[in-house]
Every structure is written in structure tokens, then in C-alpha cells.
């Protein structure tokens, strides 16, 4: 591996070079001296980065030989990325079909760090929704249709922890802001098989969302149709729900879920 020149603000590059250096050597345990020489870095600099990697469990040091090797945590991260890419690839044709049929924006979201994160979006020309819903954007779980679906994975103690850490902030006058209100809504979602956001996250926008299951029966994502309230009337939502539920089931089957125990049946 050829050494690379560094500027003063390239700490991230140095960290990645260390990870890649260890991986390229088949992750054989290596001494601090060998890593430093291989990367043309000072031992003190390398030690600082090695310590950071150990603190985050990406690196392990043998207490007897003092040699370093990578852990399987990198595989865990890679598997999560791979799963997200596979989910999006499988969902995209379905999302395009829904968007073409209803003429509204379609979103795919998963949970990360107690928030809903959009990992796929198929937009119409509606500028407001293009601003709200972009890949990588985050939204509270309690105020979005997809977020409430993801909360179906939570036990009551986990809901208490969410409230303690994130709270239930009022984004609009319609946002659920109490535990009792949230628990009641989640029970309703389990009964009916879909969720909605009635101007709870953004005034002027309404959505309906359905769960996406994996082979374990857990909700791994939410699939939603969102539009302005002038078009997304309650009548339209009622017209959309059966087709949307059907498409959610289709995507769930592609992920290995074929009915049986799910969060809707197990906890209702």
C-alpha cells in the first residue's frame, strides 16, 4: 500500500487508511510498529487512531502479544448497508408503480437512532414534498405515518425510553404529544393494518403508510403515500389503502415474509 500525503485536516482519511491497511493484510494481527511503518506514520499518531477504533469496538488488541486486528463490527455495518440497498432495490419498482397510479409522492423509511430515516423516495412535481422528503432526511417517529409503523417494534419500556430521550414534541397542533395518545394510536394501527399522518408532521400534508416486514415478522420499514391535503382527502386515503396494503405485502414477501406471526397479529 502506497503511503499518502496528509494535510492537517485529514484525520478521517488516516483512520480509514489504517482500517484498509489491516484488511489488506488479511486482518493478520499486527504490531504498532509494523502498522506505522507500513503507512509512513509516526507510532504516536497511529496509536491515537488505534485507541479510537478500540473504543468503538472496531479493533481488538491481544493482551499477550499486544498485536492489533479488526473485529467483526465492520461486517455488521456492511451487512446493514447491504440490507438497505437490497430493500431499496426491491422496493423501487413497487414505489414507481404506486406513484404512477396515484400521482403522489411515495417514500420508504426505516428506523435509525429512534428516528425515521428516508431511504427511498419517488417524487411527483410537488415542491413542498420534495423539500420535506429527501433520501437521508430524518423525522420523528411519533409524528409520521412511517414512524408510527416502526414504533410497532417497540415494547412499552422502549417507548418510555424514546419519550425520555426524544420526547414527543408538537410539530403541529395535530401531533400526538402524550404516551397515552401514542399507545392508543399504535393499538389502532395494529387493528387496521396501516398508519396515517394527518398534518401531524407538516401542516398541509397528509399521508397513509403500510408496514414492510422481514422474514422474522418485524417491521423493517414503512412505505407511504404523501400529498397535500387538497388532494389527499380522507376519501382518497380510503381508496388508496387496499392497493397500498397489497403492495406492502408484496414487498414483505420479497423479504421472506409470508404471513404467520407479525406485530399486528402478535400484539393486537
Largest β-sheet summary: 6 strands, antiparallel
Number of strands: 8
The CATH superfamily of the largest domain is GAF domain
Please indicate the count of domains: 2
What is the CATH domain class of the largest domain? Alpha Beta
The termini sit apart by 57 Å
Radius of gyration: 23 Å
InterPro entries: GAF-like_dom_sf, HTH_MetabolicPath_Reg, Tscrpt_reg_IclR_C, Tscrpt_reg_IclR_N, WH-like_DNA-bd_sf, WH_DNA-bd_sf
Keywords: DNA-binding, Transcription, Transcription regulation
Pfam families: HTH_IclR, IclR_C
GO molecular function, one term: DNA-binding transcription factor activity
Summarize the structure in words:
Helices cover 47% and strands 18% of the residues. The protein is of the alpha+beta class. It has two domains: 61 residues, Arc Repressor Mutant, subunit A; 187 residues, GAF domain (Beta-Lactamase, 2-Layer Sandwich), CATH 3.30.450. The longest helix has 30 residues. It is elongated, with a radius of gyration of 23 Å. It comes from Candidatus Gallacutalibacter pullicola. GO terms for molecular function: DNA binding; DNA-binding transcription factor activity. Keywords: DNA-binding, Transcription, Transcription regulation.
Name the descriptors:
elongated, IclR family transcriptional regulator, 268 residues, Beta-Lactamase, Arc Repressor Mutant, subunit A, alpha+beta, Tscrpt_reg_IclR_C, DNA-binding, DNA binding, 2 domains, six-stranded antiparallel beta sheet, 47% helix, two-stranded antiparallel sheet, DNA-binding transcription factor activity
Amino acid at each position: 500500500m502506497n503511503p499518502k500525503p496528509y494535510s492537517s485536516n485529514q484525520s478521517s482519511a488516516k483512520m480509514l487508511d489504517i482500517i484498509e491497511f489491516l484488511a489488506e493484510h488479511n486482518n493478520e494481527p499486527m504490531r504498532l510498529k509494523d502498522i506505522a511503518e507500513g503507512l509512513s506514520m509516526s507510532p504516536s499518531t497511529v496509536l491515537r487512531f488505534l485507541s479510537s477504533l478500540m473504543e468503538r469496538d472496531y479493533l481488538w488488541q491481544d493482551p499477550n502479544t499486544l498485536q492489533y486486528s479488526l473485529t467483526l463490527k465492520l461486517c455488521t455495518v456492511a451487512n446493514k448497508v447491504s440490507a438497505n440497498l437490497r430493500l431499496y432495490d426491491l422496493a423501487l419498482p413497487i414505489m414507481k408503480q404506486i406513484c404512477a397510479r396515484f400521482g403522489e409522492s411515495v417514500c420508504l423509511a426505516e428506523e435509525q437512532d429512534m428516528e425515521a430515516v428516508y431511504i427511498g423516495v419517488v417524487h411527483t412535481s410537488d415542491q413542498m414534498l420534495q423539500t420535506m422528503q429527501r433520501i437521508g432526511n430524518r423525522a420523528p417517529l411519533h409524528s409520521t405515518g412511517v414512524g408510527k409503523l416502526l414504533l410497532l417494534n417497540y415494547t412499552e419500556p422502549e417507548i418510555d425510553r424514546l419519550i425520555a430521550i426524544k420526547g414527543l414534541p408538537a410539530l403541529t397542533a395535530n401531533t400526538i404529544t402524550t404516551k397515552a395518545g401514542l399507545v392508543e394510536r399504535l393499538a389502532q394501527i395494529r387493528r387496521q393494518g396501516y398508519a396515517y399522518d394527518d398534518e401531524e408532521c407538516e401542516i398541509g400534508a397528509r399521508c397513509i403508510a403500510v408496514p414492510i416486514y422481514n422474514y422474522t415478522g418485524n417491521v423493517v420499514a414503512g412505505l407511504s403515500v404523501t400529498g397535500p391535503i387538497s388532494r389527499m382527502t380522507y376519501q382518497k386515503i380510503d381508496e388508496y389503502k387496499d392497493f397500498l396494503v397489497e403492495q406492502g405485502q408484496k414487498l414483505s414477501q420479497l423479504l421472506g415474509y409470508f404471513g404467520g406471526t407479525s406485530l399486528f397479529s402478535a400484539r393486537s
